[in-house]
Design brief:
By secondary structure, this protein is α/β, with parallel strands linked by helices. It is built from seven helices and eight strands, in the order E-H-E-H-E-H-E-H-E-H-E-H-E-H-E. Strand 1, helix 1 and strand 2 form a beta-alpha-beta unit. The relative contact order is 0.13.
């Protein structure tokens, strides 16, 4: 990659994990951060975190739009934050040859069907639960000193009795993330 080329990342979800992915992409120096989502409030939050482009389409239309935004090349990195077969396939379809797909959405599938094409495109796929303790010393000062505000994804609070309603609000896309307070 020549340095004049923008480093592009797609964040494939506007959920709390995806929004934190936008923060991470900006912190790591991405020039173009494409948020893939459809919820106006979440999109605005993603933009405030550093997203530069929005793709609200799904399926083949989303792939075409991302390819258009990246001059036909695809993104350098795609962060899949949903866990469905459709979401991982979109990530694989929009990443450029030699790129990387990060899987942080808990998989709802057994295998990735595009293994052969990934191999021949030299696409790296990795992921798993975040090793939080490995990052805390580096990231916590950014939060405590106000340089990063991931807590903004919490847009509702409840006590322990309100947990079922909180999950329903998140499921119905009425809340991004619900914080449970004592």
């Amino acid at each position: 990659m020549c340095r004049a080329e923008k480093r592009s990342v797609s964040i494939n979800a506007d959920n709390a994990v995806g929004l934190c992915g936008v923060i991470a992409a900006r912190r790591l120096g991405a020039d173009r951060i494409i948020i893939m989502g459809r919820h106006a409030d979440r999109i605005e939050l993603a933009k405030s975190f550093g997203a530069t482009d929005v793709v609200s389409e799904r399926g083949e239309e989303a792939v075409e739009r991302v390819r258009e935004l990246t001059g036909g090349m695809g993104v350098h990195s795609a962060l899949e934050c949903v866990g469905t077969e459709a979401a991982i396939q979109t990530a694989l379809d929009i990443v450029r040859d030699g790129g990387a797909v990060g899987r942080v959405g808990v998989p709802h599938y057994e295998t990735i069907s595009s293994a052969k094409s990934m191999f021949f495109s030299n696409v790296t796929v990795g992921g798993g639960p975040a090793p939080v303790r490995g990052y805390i010393d580096e990231l916590l000062p950014d939060i405590l000193e106000g340089r990063s505000e991931p807590g903004r994804v919490f847009d509702r609070t409840t006590d322990i009795e309100g947990v079922p309603a909180g999950y329903k609000a998140m499921n119905d896309r009425e809340a991004i993330k619900v914080m449970v307070t004592p």
